[in-house]
Amino acid sequence: MTQINHLSLFDIEEKKQGAIIRKNGSKKLYVLFYYFNRRVEKTTGLNDTPKNREKVRAWLDRVIEKRDAGKLVFAEAFPGASEAEKATFAKLEGWQYNPEPRDILLGEYLQAWYRDVWSHYPEGTKKDDYRLIIDYWLVPYFGELTFFQISGVEIQKFIASLKWKKGVKQGQPLSKARAKNILIPLRTIWNDACDQYRWVLHNPFTNLRKHLPKTQPKRREGFRYDEWMEFLSHVDPWYQPVVELMILTGMINSEIAGLRKSDIRPDYILVQHTIVRGVEHDTPKTVYRIRKIPITQAIRQRLDILTQRATGELVVTTKTGTIFRPANFLKDVWTKAGKASGITDKVPYSLRHTFAAWALTLRVDPNRLVRLMGHGSKKMIYEVYGDYIEGVEEDFWQILAYYGQDFAQPKMKQAPIGFYPTVYPGQVITLPIQETPNLPTRTFW
Q1: What are the pLDDT digits (tens) for 83-130?
Q2: Phi first, then psi: what are they for 387, rounded to 5°?
């Protein structure tokens, strides 16, 4: 195509089809066309290369096609235009715009969806995850497809294509749980478009369960007491009070990272801040995640270590004082301790599972445990976190000594004689068999 500068005459054919131009002194490509007999000239932000010219031409052809069909929405095609210009064309377009599923590419629709829907999501993990999934997984596959083309068969093909793109698992299929999470934003975008434009389409998300990967979810095994002590002994000393605070409270990585000195009250920890991917949030995943965790002697001991060495408001940091990042911790600390101890089947989230299983072993009231862990009901405790650890009942006295009597019976100033011995954090108790109390029978799950 012959280069046209901004002073060139715009002949009749170019006025119909639009043109790609360059301005004097600029390396960027511009599009030039007429809409409602008004000149529209916009930069693409792309340098003038053959590949970019081809890309811009294809985009401009779609714009012209929509314009000629009376289905172009200026604000969606040019989200970066001034509000005054958008308002002008919105009046000219009127309210008669009713696109068909064949007319809108998912990638184009996303421009308006990000502005009108996603931008109003509460700040937090969900909003961040949606953006990452859409940009990393959905746009590369569906960006150039119209909503009419997004069928159940197409989604099945997409599921089959879901493989790790890099790392040691590169080329391997994603897990069933991860594939389902990727489909959630796609379903949301689909439903929003159908609702906005009143489309009546066959739902492409029906009967997809059988097409999801057959991989089984990994069972998050908790620690036995001796196993935990062995693992802990190989954790970098700087991080030992950190992982102990996690197993003593059930707090997860992001909550530990966001814990502030102001969150530590005289008698409890107020869990209300998180740091996810380096960004601090004061809005948790659910309202139940804002909770109070009573400070026991064992917890106080670890908090004292952490707060005394913290130079800023954050309680947990790296050795250099930077933000605690779970990914770096997993790679640089946790994995090394696993290899050194020979315990490689655990992840940091196993500490939360261990907390629940150990608390149930100490016969903590499940309703209390629900509050401590930040859930809305006992369902998660029973079905996910309270999974029985083989042989854990044999660790009863060691767990009690580690957690402390004030955790097992928080409302009792002194336990009844003969029920629990006096124990201290870190103390291991060995009792003769005849002196061991008869413990009530409980069913593990």
Answers
A1: 889 888 887 776 445 678 988 899 989 988 998 899 998 877 788 899
A2: -60, 135
Residue 393 near residue 361, CB atoms below 8 Å: yes
Q: Is the pLDDT of residue 420 over 50?
A: no
Tokens 């029906």 correspond to what residue? 206
Q: Which amino acid is at 114?
A: Y
Q: Which two tokens stand for residue 395?
A: 């660790």
Q: Which of 307, 308, 297, 292 is nearest to 250 (CA)?
A: 292
CA–CA separation, 289 vs 372, rounded Å? 9
Tell me whether strands 279-281 and 38-47 are parallel, antiparallel or unpaired: unpaired
Q: Which residue has the tokens 């929405």?
A: 73
Provide φ and ψ at 315, rounded to 5°. Answer: -75, -40
The topology under which CATH files domain 106-211 is: DNA polymerase; domain 1 (1.10.150)
Phi-psi region of 207 (alpha: psi -120 to 50; beta: other; left: phi over 0): left
Of 238, 222, 83, 211, give the one whose Cα is nearest residue 151: 211
Tokens 């996690």 — which residue? 246
Q: Give the whole-angstrom CA distance, residue 28 versus residue 346.
A: 52
Strand 268-271 with 291-294, pairing? antiparallel
What is each CA distance from 435 to 150, 200, 384, 421, 423, in whole angstroms? Answer: 69, 73, 35, 11, 15
Q: Looking at the domain 225-389, which fold is it? A: hpI Integrase; Chain A (1.10.443)
Q: Which residue has the higher pLDDT, 116 or 53?
A: 53
Residue extents of the structural domains in the chain: 12-93, 106-211, 225-389
- Burial string for 158-173 (b: 16+ CB within 10 Å, else e) reads bbeebeeeeeeeeeeb
- As a whole number of angstroms, the distance between CA 272 and CA 254 comes to 11
Q: What SS3 state is found at 402?
A: helix
Stretch among 7-16, 129-138, 236-245, 300-309 having the lowest mean pLDDT:
7-16
